[in-house]
Amino acid sequence: MITAGIDMGSRTVKVVFLEELKVDGAPQLKWGVKGKHIMFPDELDADEAADKAFDDALKEAGITRDQVKNVVATGAGRKQVKFATSDVTEVGAGARGAVFMCPTAKTVVDVGAEEGRGVKANAEGKVVDFAGNEKCAAGAGAFAESMSRALQLSLKEFGEASLRSDKTIPMNAQCTVFAESEVVSLIHSSTPKEDIAKAVLDAVASRVCAMVRRVGIEEDVILIGGMVHNPGFIQSLKGALGVDKVLLPDMPEYISALGAALIAAENNA
Amino acid sequence: MIANYGYKDGSGEFYISIDTDKCTSCPVEHACLTGCPKGMFEMITDDYDDEVIAVKQAFRRSLAFDCSDCKPAGGYTSLPCTTACTPGAIKHSW
């Protein structure tokens, strides 16, 4: 049986297919990924982008739509996935996927393009407590992306540059717009790029950390979402949370889609 | 599950926390729905198929302003939502 999870994020669409395999006669879920990660092309609207991502993923996996028994959508645009059988919130899907990947995880930190959130999950991957940033993009990946543009660095260079800095420059602005003007001031005062990069990532980490503190920090902490690819952010987050270890799953941007696929498999059982 | 709806900004931390485990077996038939003068609450089906209360999307980014009328400065001695919710599922962080 094959089920699918589709995560309609604010910047990208992620698709994961999950196949139930029999090991010694007993059914076991295996993440036989076939994930597809596409940026929202300008010429497509949300439901067209979902269709395109799903079709591309089917092609990559070598399966047809008829073979997929159940599709669960998640993410900010989950209601726009017309072919989904049901939908779950990104909070529930993220927790389910994160605990599946790292069963010891109790606190899930999910930082995507437009939103960050802190989730406390139980051993089954069910949400116990959650808080999200509904107010401002300053605690999310898009903010780091726009600041890297302001510094004329690629996202990869931006994350690596911050690791070369040992200075702490506080950024006081709570809003992306004001924070950007703080960055411009730092550039004009000839502050090295690596120090500015660290200040920006420290600021994002501190906002994310404020949400995680609402639900309580209980180890193990796992970080999911696109910001896992930014080593500078991981370093800043460890400092802000006061933990030595943050679990980093493979293919972190697919974890919510994986959670949705797992929920699809359970619904279909 | 404890669901925290709200935000933190330069002026403070504004969250309404709803303990949905208390919500599912509400003995006062979700009196908070009518108890809030601004109608900020709605009934939703959560990811675990439980019918629970949530703060409406439109209010989640402006709780500091929307709830201010029901705070002591607005003449209230207790919040109408927490008073209506006798199981104690609703809490304000500020």
- What percent of residues of chain A are in strands? 15-25%
Which CATH architecture of the largest domain in chain A would you pick? 2-Layer Sandwich
The mean pLDDT of chain A is 84
Order of helices and strands of chain A: EEEEHEEHEEEHHHHEHEH
Q: How many domains in all of chain B? A: 1
Outline the structure in words.
- The complex is a heterodimer of chains A (269) and B (94).
- Chain A is of the alpha/beta class and 269 residues long.
- Helix content of chain A is 40%, strand content 22%.
- Chain A has helices at residues 46-61, 90-101, 141-150, 155-163, 176-188, 193-215, 231-241, 255-268, and strands at residues 2-8, 12-23, 26-30, 36-39, 68-74, 86-87, 107-111, 116-121, 127-132, 221-224, 246-247.
- In chain A, strand 2 (12-23) and strand 3 (26-30) form a beta hairpin.
- The model of chain A has no long low-confidence stretch (mean pLDDT 84).
- By secondary structure, chain B is an alpha+beta fold.
- Chain B has one domain (2-92): Alpha-Beta Plaits (2-Layer Sandwich), CATH 3.30.70.
- The interface between A and B is medium-sized, with 24 and 18 residues.
Brief overview:
Chain A is an alpha/beta fold and 269 residues long. Chain A has eight helices and eleven strands. Chain A folds into two domains: 2-102 and 252-268, ATPase, nucleotide binding domain (Nucleotidyltransferase, domain 5); 131-247, 2-Layer Sandwich (Nucleotidyltransferase, domain 5).
Comma- or semicolon-separated keywords:
heterodimer; A: 269 residues; alpha/beta; Nucleotidyltransferase, domain 5; 2 domains; 5-stranded mixed beta sheet; 40% helix; globular; B: 94 residues; alpha+beta; Alpha-Beta Plaits; two-stranded antiparallel ribbon; 31% strand
